[in-house]
Amino acid sequence: MCGIVGYIGKREAAPLILESLRKLEYRGYDSAGIAVLDDGRVTIRRCEGKLNNLETLLNRQPVSGAVGIGHTRWATHGRPSETNAHPHRAGDVVVVHNGIIENYLELKEQLSKRGTQFSSETDTEIVAHLVSEKIERGMDFLEAVRRTLREIRGSYALLFLNRRDPRRLIVAKNSTPIVIGWGEGETFIASDIPALLDYTRKVTFLEDGELGEVTLGSYRLFDARGKIVHRPVKEITWDAVAAQKGGFAHFMLKEIHDQPRALADTFRGRISLKDGQVSLEDIHLKAREVKQIQRIHLVACGTAWHACLVGKFMLEEIAGIPAEVDYGSEFRYRSPLMDPKSILLMVSQSGETADTLAATEIARAKKAKILSICNVIDSSIPRKSHGVLYTHAGPEISVASTKAFTTQLTALYLLAVALGRLNGKLKQAGARKLLRDLMHLPHWIEETLKIESEVKELARELMHYGDFLYLGRGVNYPIALEGALKLKEISYIHAEGYPAGEMKHGPIALIDETMPVVVLAPRDRYFEKTMGNLKEVEARGGKVIVLTDDAKSGGAILAHRVLTLPKACHYLTPIVMTIPLQLLAYYIAVQRGTDVDQPRNLAKSVTVE
Ligand code: AGP
Q1: Residue 213 pLDDT > 90, yes or no?
Q2: Which of the ends of the chain has fewer CB neighbours closer than 10 A, N or C?
Q3: What are the CA-CA distances from residue 52 to residues 33, 72, 125, 326 (Å)?
Q4: Cα-Cα-Cα-Cα dihedral of 34, 35, 37, 41, to 10°?
């Protein structure tokens, strides 16, 4: 996620903006910039890399002015570079943006036809041009922004300044946070509370669809219809560290709750419901090439490997392409049967996992096509790939992977639909159904998160057990593995994931009253069989916790606890089932007092073998 900061007051804006951006560094970024306005002149300083680079640049080439905007960029469209760094300028208009403009390509085409020249690869620059051309036609600054917001679709927190209008900053919000901070005779704007706490604790949060006109010490807020909105000023009581976690106790919990936004941002701008098509801008595959693909080798580690196990079902059943899954640490020492008709698909949050990265050498030697799904733009794995599908989860701070995992599943789903359409195995009607289901996903996850208090109470009951078993079938078996890994890595309790059908081949010997068994039992084609496994466990005194998506059957299930979840479509049920398992692991770890965000012995990215 990018970081936005704005200032209008009596002090020099640049040092204040720089310090505020430092308080947003926890969000992760790869470039930064600042624009200040002084006596009708706009000066912009931008650079790739960290804020120290920007500070050095400002020391070398100072700027002056009491009105300014600043930005730290977490790249989504366009590589990290000075030209892609924000702020972006068009004419007298300067803008910084956090979010994704879904329809930026069609807007860019329209602007090009009007003779607009572009200096960056970003979606944000389009917005500057759209506002600037309206002001050039004589429209008021605020009205020009309002009209532009009607043309763009997507998630945004936008902050504008106008060279010819030094008294005002204009701010707009849609599904990406932005907050106004009230100082003494000065006003601050930021993506998040931490950037404001050194100057004020009095804040006003904008709501979706709202547009704000901020002047020195006052503001007007308008809703999407242009009606004035009155919003109370709130007093923030958090300390700085709590503020970075958005008021959540840990980054992991914040990231669990960030999943509806992250999932929506991962498919935003990539699907056309009308045509039943998926456009993956950085995956360069033609229909002819896809028709020749004979096998996809999915390679990853840890949680990302679990995503690949689900991805195998999607790629084989939606796109009709044989797929096999391997740990990076195993693949690199095998002699996999690959050729130019093979695809290596690496999945990695960090893009730096050494065992996964090693797969590229093997694939390259066998002339296979190399694709990756990654959350960090321009990291090592995408750089070694022929094509990449970025998840837009935003930085994942907690070592335990949550939103990265569910956005990986979303990316695999998008890829399966795209490949199925390219090789003709998936017809338009089928694709439209799958994409309509995908559009429901953020809502399903919002609904699933509502069982948090129930899971928290269950965690209190289960925190003292020393061994857990997680059971699932088919497309949800990998989620049993993921639930077990989450518990292991943050609570240090031993846990195993197993295919439910395997119980009778060994694990059932483990079952007694000292072993909680978490059973994933959506009302799917395996349901009756899974109920049989559940009874086997019950008969041996096992404490059974069932996750199901059918309230009716939930009532009939005899178990220690039944958690009833929203009903999703088959291939997205794994994502719904994951949420309670993330929460269960989190609350058991909290109860046990472990270091949830930085568990012992673990690193966020394993860059060594
Ligand atoms: C998952 O919670 C762990 N943090 C770990 O298994 C992780 O998924 C694995 O190390 C792979 O990391 P990557 O996705 O960055 O490649």
Answers
A1: yes
A2: C
A3: 11, 12, 25, 40
A4: 130
Rounded CA gap, 481 and 258, in Å? Answer: 22
Residue 550 pLDDT class (50, 70, 90 cuts):
confident
Distance 304 CA to ligand 1 centre (A): 6
DSSP letter string, 526-552? THHHHHHHHHHHHHTT-EEEEEES-HH
Per the CB < 8 A criterion, the answer to whether 255 and 398 are in contact is: yes
Please tell me the distance between residue 306's alpha carbon and the centre of ligand 1 in angstroms.
10
Amino acid at residue number 370: I
What share of the chain in percent tops pLDDT 70?
A: 99
The one catalytic residue in 2, 47, 301, 308 is 2
Judge whether 47 counts as a catalytic residue: no
Give yes or no for residue 554 having a pLDDT over 70.
Answer: no
Which atom of ligand 1 is least distant from the CA of 402?
Answer: 2
The first and second tokens of residue 138, run together, are 């004589």
Which position has the higher pLDDT, 577 or 608? 577
Residue 5: partners with Cβ closer than 8 Å, 6 or more residues away: 17, 20, 21, 24, 69, 70, 71, 188, 189, 190, 191, 195
Reply yes or no on whether the pLDDT at 362 is more than 80: yes
- What mean pLDDT comes out for the span 348-377? 94
Residue 555 predicted with pLDDT over 70: no
Q: For ligand 1, atom 9, name the residue with the nearest CA.
A: 302
| Ligand 1 pocket mutation pick from 298, 581, 605, 607 by most atoms within 8 angstroms of CB | 605
604 noted as active-site residue = yes
Of ligand 1's atoms, which has the minimum distance to the CA of residue 399? 4
**Of 553, 491, 483, 494, which Cα lies nearest the Cα of 519?**
483
Ligand 1: list residues with CB < 6 Å: 301-304, 348-350, 353, 356, 399-401, 489, 605-606
Amino acid at 328: G
